[in-house]
């Protein structure tokens, strides 16, 4: 079992019993998501934005326009952090203090660089697309050279990370357990609904197999 080294930067201080440093478990959290929250500083102001990402090994890929202020600020800093979270359940206790949520979250820390080489940039965008939906890249038209030129792609190398997971039930005070108050979990999940074809599609174009497979896996 490979673990990220526990450093001052990534060590979980609050709720240490829920801390996870296992690389495979953290990658599982990342692969189950597609949106990460990225923090950066712009003109002295702290800003956090959601960004779609792709993962390949210990590399995270983000992309946007060449003028994107967040990515440019991160490149100037040379490092970044990103958090991915999945909300799994509402935990409804007998007292307000013990209400909670079940969740899986992972926070990454690492260095960042601009992807310049056209082949490496296309490979990064392939990774991004396949992270979104496997099989999608091969079903769309090839990317044009001018599109690659207009796109800023950055690569984060995960140098350390940690995760927190809560997957248990209600944790009430013992003296509250006999109160006439309902307590329990309300499980939550993100699902896919049936695909909706674009109105401008030609009549003979059907929903591709990779989209149907994605829907069947997530419905």
Automatic annotation (TrEMBL):
Pfam families: Pyridox_ox_2 (PF12900). Coiled coil: none annotated. Gene3D superfamilies: Electron Transport, Fmn-binding Protein, Chain A. SUPFAM superfamilies: FMN-binding split barrel. This is Pyridoxamine 5'-phosphate oxidase family protein.
